[in-house]
Amino acid sequence: MRLRRVGATSPHPPAPADEPAPPTCEAPGPRTLVHVSSPTPDALLGPADVRELAAALGVRPTKQRGQNFVIDANTVRRIVRTADVRPDDVVVEVGPGLGSLTLALLEVADRVTAVEIDDVLAAALPATIAARMPARADRFALVHSDAMHVAELPGPAPTALVANLPYNVAVPVLLHMLDTFPTIERTLVMVQAEVADRLAAGPGSKVYGVPSVKANWYAEVKRAGAIGRNVFWPAPNVDSGLVSLVRRTEPVRTTAPKAEVFAVVDAAFAQRRKTLRAALAGWAGSAAAAEAALVAAGVSPQARGESLTVEEFAAIAENRAGPDAPDTARLAPHALSTEESRPS
Fold it and tell me: How many domains does the chain have?
């Protein structure tokens, strides 16, 4: 993981006052300087700025990394408002891309730390921030890493997560960040509309499933708006949605470890058409053992996972039989179930 801070340590010395030089971005490899647009009056990136910067860097958005850059300043400001970003917030952003949302966050938050996996984008972003928002550049830090591997962040602990998450990894990245950084109180993510519906769904909904329950383990979750396709470049083939997550003031009350609760959730939805007695047989060791755990938790063995709250899943985990049961709690905390790993 490589860290980079913008400001006094910037490799680009300021130009004399009577001879302004165009701002530059650096790409990895041989030292190559490319010009970017002059800052707009409000410093945010517009459609022409995004395309010009991408062309200068030789960036072509890839489907593999779910890259769709926001090109509308009103949209990123709306995201910041909806996220309730405050002047004392330390915001972490995942997948900043060319910096559209990053700049809008820096207008309001105390500090912003961006996590970017792409080599070219990570190399260019600090220079873009320094060029377009020099007075706030020292409040920005970059972590060049896969977000799924991030275990710590520079500077003060984050209080908010705001991100345009790549569609293909949205759920695991969100859960990883919420789990790794318990100081994150408020989250607003922009994801594919279908994923937004699944995250915010409640028991009884047709789209209620693994992402819904696991997100609710950490936070109160709700849909916070819709985003049209025309504010992205390139325009995606699907609509997007905003999801708000406010961390629980008190965690789910249970004696069961989180890994055990999540194992129950994964098992219940792996065969969602089956009753819980049948679906949890592998987790419990047998159908009879599953029924015993369900009855002890006050859950009908004939119920299905889509009808249960996160608290009920926790109660089932608490009542799992003893030493002869399979050790599912040893699964990695973020191991993906079939439902979570399904392409978005």
Answer: 2
